[in-house]
Automatic annotation (TrEMBL):
NCBIfam families in alphabetical order: flav_long, PRK09267.1-4, PRK09267.1-5
Presence of the UniProt keyword Transport in the record: yes
The protein's required cofactors: FMN
Name the UniProt record assigns to this protein: Flavodoxin
InterPro entries xref list: Flavdoxin-like (IPR001094), Flavodoxin (IPR050619), Flavodoxin/NO_synth (IPR008254), Flavodoxin_CS (IPR001226), Flavodoxin_lc (IPR010086), Flavoprotein-like_sf (IPR029039)
């Protein structure tokens, strides 16, 4: 069973979460805003799809601070985790989608297995925390390339289904 957990200030990440839910066949009840969800909810699921936009200069979306702290206290052994995020490579090239990388780092000791990494073909910025060893550790949705979003989300969802 798949649960989607997102943090979103202006609604962009929330909209992407809804699109991912549709493509993965996840019910509305299994799409959670981290602003009002206890992290223990993740124990219901075996695939966690976690999404945060990036704010400040490479910071987590506000609601993620408390949620990530709680999540670090959860045992995620045996669970798969897929990360996604929204950012803007045009205005913030050096910290493009850093929040995805911050969550990835935060869950290194949790016992989970990460899925959904891919080679960032077609992206202009590959020097931020979302990129590790030449791969993006999660789906990066770019406000500066809105015409690519649908295709990127669809391709990533197909990848997740097969991992
Ligand atoms: C003040 C401010 C700071 C931002 N900082 C970053 C950043 O460091 N890196 C990035 O990729 N995007 C950054 N963004 C872009 C947002 O992540 C982007 O607008 C995103 O779609 C917002 O998603 P949300 O509405 O789900 O919160 C910033 C936007 C604003 C307004």
């Amino acid at each position: 069973m798949t649960g989607i957990f997102f943090g979103s200030t202006m609604g962009t990440t929330e909209a992407v979460a809804a699109d991912i839910a549709k493509q993965l066949g996840v019910a509305d009840a299994d799409v959670h805003n981290v602003a009002d969800t206890p992290a223990g909810e993740v124990q219901k699921y075996d695939l966690l799809v976690l999404g945060s936009s990036t704010w400040g200069a490479g910071e987590l979306q506000d609601d993620w601070y408390g949620f990530l702290d709680q999540l670090k206290a959860q045992d995620l052994s045996g669970k798969k985790v897929a990360l996604f995020g929204c950012g803007d490579s045009g205005s913030y090239p050096d910290t493009f989608c850093d929040a995805v990388g911050l969550i990835y780092d935060g869950l290194q000791q949790s016992g989970c297995t990460f899925v959904g990494a891919y080679a960032p073909e077609g992206y202009d910025e590959t020097g931020s925390l979302v990129c590790r060893g030449g791969k993006f550790v999660g789906l990066a949705v770019d406000e500066s390339a809105p015409d690519k979003t649908d295709r990127r989300v669809a391709a990533w969802c197909e990848q997740i289904k097969n991992e």
